[in-house]
Amino acid sequence: MLVDSHCHLNYKGLAEQQDEVLERARARGVTAMLNIATRESEWNEVLAAAETNPDVWASVGIHPHDADQHPDVDTAKLVERAAHPRVIGIGETGLDYYYDKSDRRRQQDSFRRHIHASQQTGLPIIVHTREAEADTLALLGEEMGKATYPGVIHCFTASDDFARKALDLGLYISISGIVTFRNAADLQATAKWLPQDRLLIETDSPFLAPVPHRGKTGEPAFVADTLAFLAELRGEDREALAEATSVNFYRLFNKAQP
């Protein structure tokens, strides 16, 4: 039993062959995929894949890159769309100061609106953070102090200290194919000690194809390769880790049914 906790089935490279992509994932033991939204214009597409495939779930959200273009996506709109029975998460959202494609204050405002939607619905928030550790933690902590909410740091590449503080807030950590890269020593060191009961695995496909698929279009089937690498890295049984991370997924995204 494998779960890809974060993929973009509607993105170029996967959308054109979505049925084949899903079949290849199923053939490698992937039993569930969370299809992630990043802008309002794709919400219907993301939902359509979840409505027609019982092993695909959906999120609704605005990526920090697109915060400038979505000033009207407020908490109420997120909450309304999250009522759909196939929507199990809020995001992806967060802060990206590496590319700075949107104004930082607008990123923060959008992030906060998503957290409020998570607080109101109980659905987990899916957090993107890059070169923004201090502000991400500050905002997460401030809002957690007002009302608790579940969540996951997706495609984790932050510092060891950030991981510990995110775990202290009750969040989960999701590891992508980046962990298999030769230059990912720091991430590998963190991935070794992350508590098994707070760990998820993802592809972030069509991006970040893991070894041995580097240079190819990523797809959900490749979550099996990341799992195999992670199990060896942590000295754990592959099947046991697959089961644990799947159980974690359904514990966190508890609106989904296995």
TrEMBL record:
Family: Belongs to the metallo-dependent hydrolases superfamily. TatD-type hydrolase family.
GO cellular component: cytosol
Listed InterPro entries: DNase_TatD-rel_CS, Metal_Hydrolase, TatD-like, TatD/YcfH-like
Binding site residues for a divalent metal cation 1: H6, H8, E92, D204
PANTHER family: D-AMINOACYL-TRNA DEACYLASE (PTHR46124:SF2)
Leader sequence residues: none
UniProtKB keywords: Hydrolase, Metal-binding
Family matches, as NCBIfam families: YchF/TatD family DNA exonuclease (TIGR00010)
Keyword Metal-binding: yes
The protein, known as: TatD DNase family protein
Database matches in PROSITE patterns: TATD_1, TATD_3
A single GO molecular function term of this UniProt record: hydrolase activity, acting on ester bonds
Binding site for a divalent metal cation 2: H128, H154
Keyword Hydrolase assigned: yes
Species classification: Bacteria, Pseudomonadati, Pseudomonadota, Alphaproteobacteria, Sphingomonadales
Superkingdom assignment: Bacteria
Transmembrane feature ranges: none
